[in-house]
Amino acid sequence: MKFSIISFFISFTLLFPLATSAQEDRVKIEDFITEHEGFEENDAGEITPINIKEINKKIRFFVEERYPEIAEFTRNIIWDSYRSFLSSSNIYHYHSFIAQVKVFNLDRLKYVEVRYNPFVKKVTGDFEWIAEDEEFYLVDEKEEKNDNAPDLIDLSISNQEQKPGLKDFIAEHQGFLDVMESKNLKESEIVPLNVKEINKSIRAFVGVTYSNVEYTRNIIWDSYTTFISPFDKFHHHNFIAQVKVKGVKRLKYLEVFYNPVSEKVTSDFEWIETDEEFFRVKDSIE
Description:
The chain is of the alpha+beta class.
């Protein structure tokens, strides 16, 4: 299965329309800093978000309203993760929770994932109850779009021994604000604080990794993502490299990732000679 830069942007737009429309008032970078500062972390590294009791109340109410003929009651609610996303055109953050639900006429408890948006303070969920399987499942369209997601473990971003701390996330977001202030930039013009150094690393990476690339013409910062869970913490920048391929007249594009922890650049895009394009190639599941 192949995914090009164009298909990536199309699927991303379809995958997160609610995040954009629900936050038209525009959550601010400062809100991300506040959210990261609000996490409580004990000596064992266990993390919990702020206002957990109030959020749990909202989740119980949402489950009752969303599945009135299915859910008898919600027994437990488990915080699963927090993710923030920042780009020049989109900005959002949300917490994921797992609700342990007692379903009518079933002895075994079932689990359903919901999301809490701290900006609008609302709970949403895309899981549907499939009666014949007696399980909650993510609707097919959402699952298909998730197939486009990169493997962050293979890219040496997630599940790494060296993990960022909460202060690292805050510092990275503060860096965007510092650049905006020093250069008088709009939110649509934001770039990371150390973008020049990252661009040098990207040019070097492309030159070494892709022998068919003659040179890198432009590098465009695309987005910054953070992820926190009880089991993992990571963050990464995405960039789009515009490159000149040997023997090909038109400039081509490939996506690369920058891990601020390791300060390394990686990519899962491969050159497909028959298509004369760079694609994210993933194994198809039969």
